[in-house]
Recover the amino acids of this structure.
């Protein structure tokens, strides 16, 4: 026999280890999450709190009494997990998207954030799991007693309960996580999951291969009846138990907590889908051998529920007994801790907080909601474990507790219709959910829960056996004469069946309000929506904060802050948020209406200010959606305006293109015309030379000369066309240097001196006395001046042809005027004269000069100057070359560069 | 290179298989099918009922393990799934 001291020492050491694990993980997670602790394996191990001490000890007892029936408890969850894609995935997605904190939160959120529904679910959950917690206390107490001998079970149970409460409070309520996740606790229960699995397998191996002589020995002489249990094992009870366990893995608050709420990544569910069934397989594979070995080895009358512990003890394997004890201890504590966390979350969120917010003065609450929440959660944990202990104390640790697990399963199975209906059926309504839950809960209490006390609580033994007031039709375990069922199956059929029926019928009869409809759509179509947006505001935080968040989302951070500061100032509050008075609400509504429309603003603000009807996350979603719509329509408007502008620009460009096209056609026709004239004469003279053999040598020489001249003209013309194209396209950039305009003029005049002399033209100059610095290309400038000057010579029809060249500096511009007395250009052609092959030019004597002026203009423009036709006071015209006056820079002539 | 249509088809097949697995589990483990476990015989010295139930259970675990990854990946966007989908 192990001494109590050693056992206590090992126990405390183990608990200290759990504390250390939880503490380290919590501490590390807040700084930098440990990767492997966020893994799917840890997730799966945490789900294994499904295997409580009821599995650890009770499954062997159940196998000893009822054969293989115990397997159903694990087959149901297996089916749920292998079908994870269809149900668990959706639950987890909804839980993450809507930041669901508990199963009560899920159901109430789904049905329009109904507070009454949340209270109802919480109440049922607490009533259903309190005996379950008591069962864990009892099993730990019993196992303790088995090892150290009989002692005061009540005291032991009390200290166990107190220890668990302490652990849960320490690590379950350290801080308020918006996601209600408890990494430290999860790590600790994962460790416990490994311990209990190893312990059970160790005992199984011990029983099979050491106590007995292998599997053959274990099963030798065992009849099929012993294995299968008495009666029809695969009957209604088999189905009912599988259904119940499948329901429990979803609906038990602690399972919901670890599977949905503590889920870190959705893909972990995929791994758990096979790993968790495998874990349960490992937990159960040795159950039957242990039970059979226990039955054959242990003295008759010993409790088969404790074979796992008593078998090693009977064989004097104290270390193994210690390991088994720790395994049972682990399964009990992990279940109790998580169940307490889950229940306390529900109780504090849905019962304590609403009441506290209503009773306490607004001032006391508004500042310190988080503290209030934590405090209420701590008290809830203590209260739930207190209730469990009380239940254990009052029931006196009787064997009747063994059935408690299944009773709890049926209790939480009442959530199933509302839960499944809520996430798959849009038309499910709050009225349907409430009706189903109330009816199902009442029938569960009447047909299963109360009769389980054997007449010691509310229902007397007489009522249980004969029915209330002797009406046998109303007997709790044979309602309306349905007495050919096992009591458990009877209760399942009645409670869950009527629950589902009421749920469907009432849902069909009632119409959901807007909020229910909205939430229903969000839940049922969770894969379609993007999910709840990230908001760290818990649903419990005071109204103004919610309004502020809403305003921020809609108005933008800074304007919202400004608005709320203003409103706070008008209430005389220096820092912080204003009180949600009617004036504040109305003002906010007006402000919001500007962004999202009056109707939406009213709906949102009154919903927040008026109470918790829809989660703030959802309102923000609506707001975001509205914003997106607004933004989209604004962008659309912008786009269409932009399109309009583009179209306008296109029209303008198109017109210009048409003009240019027309000009190009004109140009081509002119060019071909210009080219055609010399070509014609070349061709005709060539033909004469080829065909006429009688022409004289003189004529021949003359004709060849004409052909040569015409060829030169043609070449010059083509050169000019190429030149002007290059200039206009900006392909050929001119090198500009600083030069003196007067000097350039003088040089140009020298160049054409021969021409002027032969034409008998007098050239006069009136040059400015100062040097006139310009930036130009010397050669090109001379080309322009020669061009203009030669024009003036050629077209001058006056009797005494005379040309005046003058330079001046006017308003920062250097002007070179070339004036002739030939009458100038007729004013009506003064603009078109620069067009290529303009008709004004062609009327002159020389047909070949058509490109001179356009080229000159192009050159001047390429040198940043201009060539214009000016009108004198005497209504004659002259040509003016103008340049910007360049600053004098003697030392450093500007480097060669482009058109800049 | 897997075509998008082929990928979509493969994903549908994966989901169909997960339904099939679930149906298989229910059929194997629920009456009337499970009653075949009641034959009074032994397999390797073990009672047939025990072997049948654990074998069916193990089968479901294996099936779920094989389907877990394809199912998980079947939610990835098609474009990226073609590049890193190792299980097809």
């Amino acid at each position: 026999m192990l001494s109590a001291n050693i056992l206590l020492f090992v126990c405390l050491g183990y608990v200290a280890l759990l504390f250390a694990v939880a503490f380290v993980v919590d501490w590390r997670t807040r700084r930098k999450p440990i990767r492997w602790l966020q893994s799917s394996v840890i997730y799966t191990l945490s789900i294994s709190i499904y295997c409580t001490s009821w599995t650890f000890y009770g499954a062997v007892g159940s196998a000893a009494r009822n054969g293989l029936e115990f397997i159903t408890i694990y087959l149901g969850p297996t089916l749920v997990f292998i079908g994870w894609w269809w149900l668990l995935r959706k639950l987890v997605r909804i839980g993450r998207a809507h930041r669901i904190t508990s199963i009560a939160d899920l159901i109430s959120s789904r049905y329009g954030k109904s507070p009454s529904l949340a209270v109802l679910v919480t109440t049922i959950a607490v009533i259903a799991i309190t005996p379950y917690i008591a069962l864990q206390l009892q099993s730990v107490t019993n196992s303790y007693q088995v090892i150290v001998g009989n002692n005061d079970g009540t005291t032991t149970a009390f200290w166990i309960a107190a220890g668990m409460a302490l652990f849960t409070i320490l690590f379950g309520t350290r801080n308020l996580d918006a996601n209600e996740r408890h990494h430290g606790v999860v790590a600790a229960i994962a460790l416990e999951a490994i311990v209990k699995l190893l312990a059970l397998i160790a005992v199984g191996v011990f029983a099979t291969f050491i106590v007995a002589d292998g599997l053959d020995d274990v099963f030798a002489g065992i009849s099929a009846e012993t294995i299968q249990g008495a009666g029809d094992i695969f009957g209604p009870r088999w189905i009912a138990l599988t259904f119940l366990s499948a329901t429990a893995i979803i609906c038990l608050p602690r399972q919901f907590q670890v599977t949905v709420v503590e889920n870190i990544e959705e893909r972990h569910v995929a791994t758990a889908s096979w790993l968790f069934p495998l874990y349960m397989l490992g937990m159960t594979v040795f159950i039957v051998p242990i039970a059979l070995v226990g039955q054959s080895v242990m003295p008759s009358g010993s409790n088969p529920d404790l074979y796992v512990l008593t078998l090693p003890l009977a064989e004097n394997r104290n270390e193994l007994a210690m390991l088994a004890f720790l395994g049972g201890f682990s399964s009990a504590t992990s279940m109790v801790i998580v169940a307490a966390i889950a229940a306390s979350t529900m109780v504090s969120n849905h019962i304590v907080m609403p009441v506290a917010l209503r009773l306490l003065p607004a001032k006391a609450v508004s500042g310190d909601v988080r503290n209030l929440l934590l405090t209420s959660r701590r008290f809830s944990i203590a209260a739930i474990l207190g209730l469990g202990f009380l239940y254990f104390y009052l029931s006196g640790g009787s064997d009747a507790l063994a059935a408690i697990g299944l009773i709890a399963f049926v209790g939480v199975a009442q959530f199933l219709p509302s839960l499944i209906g809520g996430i798959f059926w849009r038309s499910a309504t709050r009225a349907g959910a409430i009706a189903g839950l109330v009816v199902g809960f009442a029938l569960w209490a009447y047909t299963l829960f109360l009769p389980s006390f054997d007449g010691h609580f509310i229902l007397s033994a007489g009522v249980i056996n004969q029915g209330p007031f002797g009406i046998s039709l109303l007997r709790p375990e044979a309602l309306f004469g349905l007495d050919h069922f096992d009591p458990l199956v009877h209760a399942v059929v009645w409670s869950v069946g009527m629950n589902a029926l009421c749920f469907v019928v009432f849902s069909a009869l009632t119409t959901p309000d807007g909020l229910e409809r909205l939430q229903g759509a969000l839940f049922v179509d969770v894969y379609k929506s993007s999910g709840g947006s990230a908001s760290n505001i818990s649903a419990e935080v005071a109204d103004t904060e919610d309004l502020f968040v809403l305003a921020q989302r809609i108005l933008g951070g800074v304007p919202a802050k400004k608005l709320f500061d203003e409103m706070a100032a008008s209430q005389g509050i220096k820092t912080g948020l204003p009180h949600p008075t009617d004036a504040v609400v109305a003002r906010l509504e007006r402000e919001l209406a500007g962004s999202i429309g009056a109707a939406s603003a009213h709906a949102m603000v009154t919903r927040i200010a008026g109470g918790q009807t829809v989660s703030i996350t959802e309102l923000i979603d609506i707001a975001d959606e509205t914003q997106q719509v607004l933004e989209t329509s604004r962008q659309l408007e912008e786009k269409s305006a932009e399109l309009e502008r583009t179209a306008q620009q296109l029209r303008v460009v198109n017109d210009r293109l048409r003009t240019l096209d027309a000009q190009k056609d004109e140009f081509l026709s002119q060019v071909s015309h210009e080219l055609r004239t010399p070509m014609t004469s070349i061709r005709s003279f060539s033909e004469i030379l080829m065909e006429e053999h009688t022409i004289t040598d003189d004529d021949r020489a003359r004709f060849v000369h004409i052909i040569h001249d015409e060829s030169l003209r043609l070449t010059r013309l083509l050169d000019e066309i190429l030149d002007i194209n290059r200039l206009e396209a900006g392909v050929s950039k001119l090198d500009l240097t600083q030069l003196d305009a007067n000097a350039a003029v003088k040089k140009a005049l020298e160049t054409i001196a021969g021409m002027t002399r032969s034409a008998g033209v007098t050239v006069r100059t009136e040059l400015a006395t100062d040097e006139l610095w310009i930036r130009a290309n010397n050669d090109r400038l001379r080309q322009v001046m020669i061009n203009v000057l030669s024009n003036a010579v050629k077209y001058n029809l006056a009797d005494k042809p005379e040309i005046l060249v003058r330079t001046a500096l006017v308003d920062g511009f250097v002007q070179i005027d070339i004036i002739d007395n030939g009458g100038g250009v007729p004013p009506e052609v003064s603009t078109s004269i620069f067009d290529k092959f303009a008709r004004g030019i062609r009327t002159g004597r020389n047909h070949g000069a058509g490109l001179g002026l356009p080229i000159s203009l192009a050159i001047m423009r390429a040198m940043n100057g201009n060539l214009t036709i000016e009108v004198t006071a005497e209504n004659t015209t002259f040509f003016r070359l103008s340049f910007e006056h360049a600053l004098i820079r003697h030392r450093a002539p500007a480097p060669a560069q482009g058109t800049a | 290179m897997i075509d998008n249509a082929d990928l979509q088809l493969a994903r549908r097949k994966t989901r169909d298989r997960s339904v099939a697995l679930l149906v298989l589990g229910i059929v194997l483990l629920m009456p009337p099918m499970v009653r075949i476990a009641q034959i009074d015989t032994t397999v390797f010295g073990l009672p047939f009922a025990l072997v049948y139930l654990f074998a069916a259970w193990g089968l479901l675990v294996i099936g779920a393990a094989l389907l877990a990854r394809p199912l998980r990946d079947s939610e990835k966007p098609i474009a990226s799934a073609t590049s890193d989908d190792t299980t097809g």
